[in-house]
């Protein structure tokens, strides 16, 4: 279960990174929808006491943001288990910062992850810096494997 949850969180974060990049790097008009792929390059689990998967445990990750076969940025983030109960799907609070040409974009949200290699979720674009200082909207994530995700970013402004 722990490996499954870890993989799910990594996938979710990869998707988040792709969504943030899409909103920040394409200079699109409000109402634009953009899709990208995120590839996880580093992933670590932090198991807080007591031993074993439980509330407060975290995953920390780094992703490369890829569009049409080219790296367009990277991200860093973490997800913390906020709800863990036997027989129920764990819930994670995730925060990711995407580094793009011209600035950074941040996303966050709660995500239920039953299968880390195949899940969907929605996150809020919470802000940005530089040319992305007014970034907002939401990212819909589709995790397609333990290390790859596609996202659809709906840019409001």
Task: State the gist of this model.
This protein is α+β, with helices and mostly antiparallel strands and 157 residues long.
Would you mind describing this structure in some detail?
The chain is an alpha+beta fold and 157 residues long. Mean pLDDT is 78; it is low at 4-29. The protein has one domain: Beta Barrel (AOC barrel-like). It has one helix at residues 2-25; strands at residues 33-46, 58-67, 70-83, 91-100, 103-112, 119-128, 137-143, 148-155. It has 1 helix and 8 strands, in the order αββββββββ. An 8-stranded antiparallel beta barrel has the order 1-2-3-4-5-6-7-8.
Terminus-to-terminus distance: 39 Å
Query: What is the highest CATH level, the class?
Result: Mainly Beta
Q: Label the structural class.
A: alpha+beta
Radius of gyration: 15 Å
Helix content: 10-25%
Instruction: Estimate nothing, just give the exact number of structural domains.
Output: 1
* pLDDT < 50 stretches: 4-29
Amount of beta strand = over 45%
